[in-house]
Design brief:
globular; two-stranded antiparallel ribbon; MetI-like fold; mainly alpha
Length: 295
């Protein structure tokens, strides 16, 4: 005779459900409500249906052109960050010590940038890259290279990408290091017996065993870089011009600067759908390839 289920345990979950509903579901419903309406002030809203979405997804309109320009800039920024941080993180993880006091010291030093708040990171790099008092800006200009992130788009891009690499490469390093530590010593001993080179060990043992942690690292870094706001806003404010106006910055400008709640709500919904879609496609593709490799 089976033991009857005690459904009273569900009461323990109710506080969590209520918290999630309050902090996530209600704001999402509010954004959806704004996205199908238009406002003319004095809290007067008028039904607009899918008008904002049609305008947003049409590149020939002002809103659509603005959206797609910011989208390509954001995608480019995410791609640059991933292309730099993932290989760099793997390389640093491979050089970290496996034994002794150096392990703890290395991990603590690597974790320090991750502990700094985002607005503080932006402030640090805003001062660090200034051409008059900043160490980086003064050094680069001292070499005869014109560097001014407040006036030159290329310098602004170099600054925000370097800032993100400095801030978040440690996360990739720590995840990769955890994956490397999980590899049994028997694999390395077998490779040593076979006379495998360092590149062969990396390609046949270390990289395959790091696939799961690399999937997590790439997903986290894509989401963070694609939704980045605080750091570039503090450093460049989206400038010079619109050179570093990513989707998050443009969304805030529309919502708070212009107070176009309908347009901002529609953009935020499309924004989140893009993130969810890309993450789902990447995760599904990676999971399928890993399952086929196991088979």
């Amino acid at each position: 005779m089976s033991k009857p289920l005690d459904n009273r345990a569900w009461f323990l979950v109710l506080p969590v459900v209520a918290l999630v509903a309050f902090s996530a579901l209600i704001p999402v419903m509010t954004v959806v409500n704004y996205s199908v309406q238009d406002s003319f002030g004095n809290n007067e809203f008028f039904w607009n249906g899918t008008g904002w979405f049609k305008e947003l997804l049409d590149p020939s309109t002002d809103l659509g052109g603005r959206f797609f320009d910011a989208l390509w800039r954001t995608l480019l920024f995410s791609a640059l960050c991933l292309l730099i941080e993932v290989p760099l993180g793997i390389g640093v993880a491979l050089t970290l010590p496996r034994k002794g006091w150096g392990v703890a010291a290395s991990l603590v030093l690597l974790a320090l940038p991750l502990l700094i708040p985002w607005n503080v990171v932006g402030t640090i790099w805003q001062v660090f890259a200034r051409r008059d008092i900043g160490l980086l800006g003064a050094a680069v200009n001292g070499l005869g290279i014109e560097y001014n992130y407040a006036q030159t788009p290329l310098a602004a891009w170099v600054t925000v990408v370097a800032m993100d690499v400095w801030h978040w490469t440690s996360l990739v390093v720590l995840l990769c290091y955890a994956g490397l530590r999980a590899i049994p010593d028997a694999y390395y001993q077998a490779a040593k017996v076979d006379g495998a080179s360092s590149w062969a060990v990396f390609r046949a043992i270390q990289l395959p065993k790091m696939q799961r942690v690399l999937t997590i690292a790439i997903l986290l870094r894509f989401m963070d870089s694609f939704m980045i706001y605080t750091e570039p806003f503090v450093v460049t404010g989206g400038g010079p011009g619109n050179a570093t106006t990513f989707l998050s910055i443009d969304l805030v400008k529309i919502a708070l600067g212009q107070f176009d709640l309908g347009k901002a709500a529609a953009m935020s919904i499309v924004y989140n759908l893009i993130v969810l879609t890309v993450c789902w496609v990447f995760f599904a593709t990676t999971t399928r390839s890993q399952s086929e490799a196991v088979q």
